[in-house]
Automatic annotation (TrEMBL):
It holds the Pfam family Glyco_hydro_28. PANTHER family: PECTIN LYASE-RELATED, PLASMIN AND FIBRONECTIN-BINDING PROTEIN A. It comes from the Eukaryota. Belongs to the glycosyl hydrolase 28 family. Residues 1-21 form the signal peptide. It comes from Arabidopsis suecica. Keywords: Glycosidase, Hydrolase, Signal. GO terms for molecular function: polygalacturonase activity. One of its GO terms (biological process) is carbohydrate metabolic process. InterPro entries: GH28_Enzymes, Glyco_hydro_28, PbH1. This is Parallel beta-helix repeat. SMART domains: PbH1 (SM00710).
Length: 338
């Protein structure tokens, strides 16, 4: 009995590492831009008139501050330093070769007025807003067509103050699909690490059409009953590594996606080479790791290692729907820490 268990274990481990090697990977996150954790230039948000009193709206300060490091893009990039304080803001746009640094005690607070979250087109692989036909609110921290972006710090916090959005959703008062906390689109070389995410209006972290993404050492929290507050949703993205995260939310902790129905099928952008290592957390309504339900572009090469869930609904769930198309292939699951 014991021996056959051991044999099975050895076979599983062998299959796991074998499959991992065949895609040319290691078990841990590999960084395409690790050197970017140390930027040669730095500027503070306070130099742009930002006020960290939790009341002053700092959208313009963030946007102006993010224009400035542009001049360092060919000189190793720059760091935008956010010191301790409560920095209220609407949605703002990142640039390439940037580190957004949230110091210890720094909180970026999402505005509770929907007009501070501009409305943008639906994603081509979804064809319409996820919740309502038509457009959608842009994420609090947004980026498109970027390379080499780091969002990190000393356990600073990004707080979406999502309860107003959850109420609008429950009362049918939304005009557009709810926004994520961080969405990076068509971007490469991304690191999101060493921070806390709280109370996202919708999903927390959404890399879509991205490549080479590391999400490491995050705490992501939202009430267990909050609607659709997924932790990390790699969507039509390749080479994404999620490691050492603690996630307790109202929906899937990690959800791997690749577009929706006919739009996802025709956009045909799969998610592949997704590693999830040492994920700990709780979800009473959903799954530790979900694949789908939007997986119309296909999902493959998934490596899940050391998933620790407590008082949760489902461990790992592969979700599809009739007519959704796509495929789910080569999902490897291993528990090494016993
Ligand atoms: C993605 O970003 C690259 C580099 O910035 C750009 O050349 C390309 O047109 C973008 N593609 C889409 C579909 O946005
Ligand atoms: C990203 O690239 C696409 C395709 O080239 C372009 O349509 C879009 O405006 C670009 N977005 C930004 C913010 O530069
Ligand atoms: C995780 O992040 C915290 C700050 O949020 C930091 O103190 C700690 O050293 C980090 N751990 C690792 C392994 O990087
Ligand atoms: C970071 O802050 C969160 C929220 O305050 C806390 O739960 C977590 O333990 C902290 N992490 C570290 C490494 O200090
Ligand atoms: C929806 O639109 C109405 C009419 O413009 C507006 O009064 C309301 O505040 C909007 N709701 C949200 C959640 O933005
Ligand atoms: C996280 O923080 C630790 C402790 O400060 C640091 O050593 C590490 O490089 C950071 N990791 C990332 C990926 O930001």
């Amino acid at each position: 009995m014991k021996r056959s268990f051991l044999l099975l274990y050895v076979l599983l481990v062998h299959a796991f590492y074998g499959a991992l090697c065949s895609v040319g990977g290691s078990l841990h996150c590999e960084y395409s831009n690790l050197a970017s954790l140390h930027r040669p230039h730095s500027v503070s948000i306070t130099e742009f008139g930002a006020v960290g009193d939790g009341v002053t709206l700092n959208t313009k300060a963030f946007q102006n501050a993010l224009f400035y490091p542009n001049s360092f893009s060919d000189k190793g990039g720059a760091k935008l330093f956010v010191p301790a304080g409560q920095w209220l803001t609407g949605s703002f746009d990142l640039i390439s070769h940037l580190t957004l640094w949230l110091d210890s005690g720094a909180t970026i607070l999402g505005s509770t007025s929907s007009e501070n979250w501009p409305v943008v087109d639906p994603l081509p692989s979804y064809g319409r807003g996820r919740e309502l036909p038509g457009r959608r609110h842009r994420s609090l921290i947004y980026g498109q067509n970027l390379t080499d972006v780091v969002i990190t710090g000393e356990n600073g916090t990004i707080d979406g103050q999502g309860s107003v959005w959850w109420d609008w959703f429950r009362n049918g008062e939304l005009n557009y699909t709810r926004p994520h906390l961080v969405e990076l689109m068509n971007s490469t070389g991304l690191i999101i690490s060493n921070l806390t995410f709280l109370n996202s209006p919708f999903w927390n972290i959404h890399p879509v059409y991205c490549r080479d993404v590391v999400v490491k050492n995050l705490t992501i929290l939202a009430p267990l009953e909050s609607p659709n507050t997924d932790g990390v949703d790699p969507d039509s993205s390749t080479n994404v590594c999620i490691e050492d995260c603690y996630i307790v939310t109202g929906d899937d902790l990690v959800s791997i996606k690749s577009g929706w129905d006919e739009y996802g099928i025709s956009y045909a952008r799969p998610s592949s080479k997704i590693k999830i290592n040492r994920l700990t957390g709780q979800t009473t309504s959903s799954s530790g790791i979900a694949i789908g339900s939007e997986m119309s572009g296909g999902v493959s090469e998934i490596y899940i290692k050391d998933l620790h869930l407590f008082n949760s609904n489902t461990g790992i769930r592969i979700k599809t729907s009739p007519g959704r198309g796509g495929y789910v292939r080569n999902v490897h699951i291993l528990n090494e820490a016993r």
